Amino acid sequence: MNLRRLQYFVKIVDVGSLTQAADVLHVAQPALSQQLATLEGEVRQQLLVRTKSGVVPTEAGKVLYRHAQLILRQCEQARADMNAAAKNISGAVAVGLAPGTAAAGLALPLLAVLYGGKTAVHGLSFQPLLREPLYLVGRGSMVAPPSEVPLAMLVDTDLYLARPYNVVRKMVNDAFAAIGKVPNVVAEIESASTLTAVISDGLGATILPESMARQVASSCDAWQSCIIDPVIEAPLVPVRPLAAFRTGTGDQRNPAGAGGRSAGKPPCA
Asked: Quick one: 137 exposed, middle or buried, by C-beta within 10 A (0-12, 13-18, 19+)?
């Protein structure tokens, strides 16, 4: 199998749309469709099913998706190891901030330290910063649950959640699977403004980390209830440079810190 086709396939599944994947990959959609058809011909399996809302992987596609992720990671690690063996570690650093979590508040501090690609980073450290419990958020016109609600009580609740590749959605799916249930997802929404409008109109509920839940609840007449049994917590673990220097100046800069709920503070407090 061609590695580039595997990369294309993984991106299509991640995004859930051939059109959006083509935009992200900077590839014409017909060419991307042809690459997918070639890959399906190589494995002699249908990998994706087209729906009104986009594309979803078949059972065979799900299996290939898991293996392709591992293969691509191993290839990238092999390149990094070879480069490190030949010279000092260098290259592009990709920073991911999960939407809908407190991580979004770190974007500006990060840009302030690493703006313009003119900062050299030497070494990285991982420091658990906080854990955000997940909350059920719904419109005031809906029947509000208690301040804490067991996950099992949400089985029949109409939920509006992000796509399956979203980190919060994955945590929700895993928590439901642990109790032998599946969430009743009536629609998948990525846009925060659209999600807020849906909640404001009383069409259903959503599940969000505490910081995002507060924002949505404050912007409309909504309630929020901490999910328990089990408590679901989204960790925020920033990766900080051990030392950062402005290129060509030798001026050392310290990464900006971020506030939030302490990792040791009880959930739903």
From this structure: buried
